[in-house]
Amino acid sequence: MPRRRFHVRQAQPDDELDEVKSGDSNRYVIFDDLTAEVMSQWFERQDAEREAWGAEYEDSGRVFTYEDGRALRPEYVTDAFTWQVNKYNAIRRRRDEQGWDVQRIARVHRMSVERVEIALLGPPLPPVRFHDLRHGVATMAAATGVDMNEGHQR
């Protein structure tokens, strides 16, 4: 069974990866089985990338990296999230406002019909920034009994 939690021991308040600022910041992030499986697959992919890059692989100590191990730039993550939200909203607009069929949307957005159908099953997204996700996660975690002060389930 995949690991179901991460132990957070470092943070990046600026350009440097440092120890967390206080003992209270040293905590566990707990997640569900599906997330554990996705993360296991991610680590397998990272291991393959590490092997493929060999001596040129830069071990940044991060969970999420570029394929050569370098740390992701925070702006890159924010921009990629914004791009995905905009794409999702464009798919819905094309169907709801412009009357496009699924096949046309898939062609224009260069994605499978199945992925378009999945996007169309979901609700419209409210205006959301990447940073807003942490508040949503905290709310959902608290609702499921995660002790926000200890980082452990109750």
Protein model, in words:
- This protein is mainly α and 154 residues long.
- It has two domains: 1-72, no CATH class; 73-144.
- It is 47% helix and 10% strand.
- It has five helices and six strands, in the order E-E-E-E-H-H-H-H-H-E-E.
- It has helices spanning 33-53, 74-96, 102-109, 113-121, 132-143; strands at residues 5-8, 10-11, 18-19, 27-30, 146-147, 152-153.
- The strands form three sheets. It has a two-stranded antiparallel ribbon. It has a two-stranded antiparallel sheet with strand order 2-3.
- 3% of the residues are buried.
- The model has no long low-confidence stretch (mean pLDDT 83).
Strand order, main sheet: write it out. 1-4
Largest sheet: 2 strands, antiparallel
How many β-strand stretches? 6
Strand content: 5-15%
The secondary-structure element order is EEEEHHHHHEE
Task: Provide the descriptors you would attach to this structure in a database record.
154 residues, mainly alpha, 2 domains, two-stranded antiparallel sheet, globular
